[in-house]
Amino acid sequence: MDDISDTLDARGLLCPLPVLKARKRLRSLPDGGVLRLIADDPAAVVDVPHFCAEARHALLSQEESDGAQTYLIRKGG
């Protein structure tokens, strides 16, 4: 398992806030750092992978449990 550098709990936030907050949090991580993003916005299923592709971050995993999605995002450099 990749070492998690930081966790962002974005439950209760609606699009585009989970992605905007993830972008800000990723800026503070070193290249290669891994952010765990937890979101319950249904749009995040589309928004997070698109954000990762556009920003050249690696989406390591995407899981759903208990009504929330958990994403592991490795900061690109």
Summarize the helices and strands and which ones pair or pack.
Layout (H helix, E strand, L loop, with lengths): L5 E4 L7 H11 L6 E6 L4 H12 L2 E8 L2 E7 L3
Parallel strand pairs: 1-2
Antiparallel strand pairs: 2-4, 3-4
Question: What would you note in describing this structure?
Answer:
The chain has 77 residues and is of the alpha+beta class. 30% of the residues lie in helices and 32% in strands. It has helices at residues 17-27, 44-55; strands at 6-9, 34-39, 58-65, 68-74. A hairpin with a 2-residue loop joins strand 3 (58-65) and strand 4 (68-74). 25% of the residues are buried. The mean pLDDT is 96.
Brief summary:
This protein is 30% helix and 32% strand. With 77 residues, the chain is of the alpha+beta class. The chain has a four-stranded mixed β-sheet with strand order 1-2-4-3, covered by helices on one side.
What is the tally of beta strands? 4
- Mass-distribution shape: globular
- List the strand order in the largest sheet: 1-2-4-3
- Write down the secondary-structure element order: EHEHEE
Profile the largest sheet.
4 strands, mixed
Poorly predicted spans: none
Radius of gyration: 11 Å
Structural class: alpha+beta
Helix content: 25-40%
Mean pLDDT: 96
Our count of helices gives 2
- Percent of sequence in beta strands: 25-35%
**End-to-end CA span:** 20 Å
